[in-house]
Amino acid sequence: MTTVQEDLKLMRPCPELRDDFLAMCIEYVRQGNTWERGIFGEAQRDFARYLRRVDEIADGVNLPPGWVPQYTYWLVRSGRQIVAVSHFRPNLHERGLYEEGHIGYGTRPSQRGKGYATMLCRLTLLKARELGLRRVLITCDADNTASARVIERNGGQLENRVPSRETGKLKSRYWVELDELSPDF
Predict the structure, then answer these.
(1) Which of the residues 24, 75, 114, 153 has an alpha carbon 20 to 30 A from that of 122?
(2) Which residues of 6-38 are buried (b: 16+ CB within 10 A; e: fewer)?
(3) Mean pLDDT of 125-142
(4) Which domains, ranges and CATH numbers included, belong to the chain?
(5) pLDDT at 3 over 70
């Protein structure tokens, strides 16, 4: 893994990075990630509407049934390339307790193995602490060893593994105590 020692910034989605966001979505679609297709289609059709929708979801406006407010963050390198994306849900609901947790994240396929997920997770955890959370749940598929390492490097303590109520796949559930989290790596 390459050490992340670059000009990185955690930021909310913005119109200036539209083209790079769409390029990242194409990478996900080519890789076969179906969850990115919906995001990609919406952003490709009308990026301004996509940005408004991201803000609505953060504000808890027009949420689909069973959703909770969620903040989206981009980890941006050198002010121009999105290298990873996180979603932070300050409140958990039933699905969040077993499927999603407070934080979800993904690294752009072409940027994996460079430490960006670890950095993004840490910065998102620090945002959670700024908003007053003291403890955060992060989940991953039990067979996703890369994600498990990211969570563990950020102080995650495995609580248990439970079958997904949606897919039946085993999910690992980690808790991170934010009072113990250092901003440094």
Answers:
(1) 24
(2) eebebeebeeebbebbeebbeebbeeeeeebee
(3) 96
(4) 8-180 (3.40.630.30)
(5) no
